[in-house]
Write a structure and sequence with these properties.
- This protein has about 280 residues and is α/β, with parallel strands linked by helices.
- It has two domains: about 130 residues, HUPs (Rossmann fold, 3-Layer(aba) Sandwich), CATH 3.40.50; about 140 residues, HUPs (Rossmann fold), CATH 3.40.50.620.
- Strands 3-2-1-4-5-11-10-6-7-9-8 form an eleven-stranded mixed β-sheet, with helices on both faces.
- Helix 2 links the parallel strand 2 and strand 3.
- The longest helix has 22 residues.
- The radius of gyration is 19 Å and the shape is globular.
Length: about 280
């Protein structure tokens, strides 16, 4: 399910550390990794030459730190606008997962600061694992999936089970937030999943793969509650579905409404205290 990974590196952040953690997971160990660094165009040839040399060193250091089997890793150094090049290379190699660092900028800041991760998420339909600069990357044993009845949530469930099924002692944490836009929160309640329409099928699927699952509900504003649940339940990785609602004619344009509006995935991307894997299904 995840056979080709694109790791975009900039010389900073925890993206390499996240990939090393993923590579400890049995189902990921055979995945091919492409490490990408993008050099932005410079005003003079001499500065451009310096940037190319610097980029080569960043790639070499990243590959050395990953310590992967040479047959499993390749590198690409390319010139251009990072947000465009990451999408292009992901398509070229047909990546099953993009891993990027993120500064965790708020929505409007993302536009003003030209956030690469934000734009890539908007323009790519591929699953994307974002690792903020200020979080601690832990060994993955507990994965949380925010559940509803959407295809995007089911896609996340399948990804989570793919990752967890061969990890001894792993646990799937299924959560659902009953929306209360007034912001009134409830206690986090663990429930018996068998008779719950949100959890029953997902719980049964986990049992099929021998993965222990626990189910929790709460109420409040969805983005805030998902982040709270992830922190309170001490999860190592959060999977969140993000349906693509842009018309096909707008695929080449960033969805400004989502950038500055109340996008659930954007809120979680910025505020979660663990790595976030955002998976999109095209409607």
């Amino acid at each position: 399910m995840i056979e080709k990974i694109l790791l975009a590196v900039s010389g900073l952040g925890h993206a390499e550390e996240m990939l090393k953690t993923l590579k400890e997971i049995p189902s990921i160990q055979r995945a091919k990794v492409t490490v990408l660094h993008v050099v932005t165009p410079q005003s003079t040839a001499s500065v451009m030459t310096d940037k190319w040399e610097e980029g080569g060193k960043i790639l070499a250091n990243a590959i050395q730190s990953l310590n992967l089997d040479p047959s499993q890793v390749s590198s690409i150094l390319r010139q251009g606008d990072p947000k465009d090049v990451v999408c292009q290379v992901a398509d070229e190699i047909d990546a099953d997962l993009i891993i990027m660092g993120s500064r965790g900028l708020k929505r409007l800041q993302s536009i003003l600061a030209n956030s690469v991760s934000q734009y890539v998420f908007q323009l790519s339909s591929r699953p994307m694992l974002l690792v903020k600069d200020d979080i601690y990357v832990k060994r993955i044993k507990r994965i949380m999936v925010a559940m509803d009845n959407s295809d995007a949530a089911k896609h996340c469930l399948n990804l989570a089970l793919f990752l967890l099924r061969d990890i001894p002692g792993s646990q799937l944490v299924l959560t659902h937030v009953n929306t209360d836009l007034r912001g009134k929160t409830s206690e986090v309640n663990e429930i018996v999943p068998n008779k719950d329409p949100i959890f029953a099928a997902a719980y049964a699927e986990a049992q099929k793969y021998g993965v222990q699952a626990r189910c929790y509900t709460s109420s409040g504003k969805p983005g805030e509650e998902i982040c709270r649940l992830a922190e309170e339940l001490s999860v190592d990785l959060l999977l969140l579905g993000s349906p693509d609602r842009r018309p096909s004619v707008a695929k080449s344009f960033v969805d400004i409404d989502r950038l500055i509006g109340a996008s659930l995935s954007d809120y979680v991307r910025v505020n979660a205290t663990c790595p976030v894997l955002l998976a999109r299904t095209v409607e």
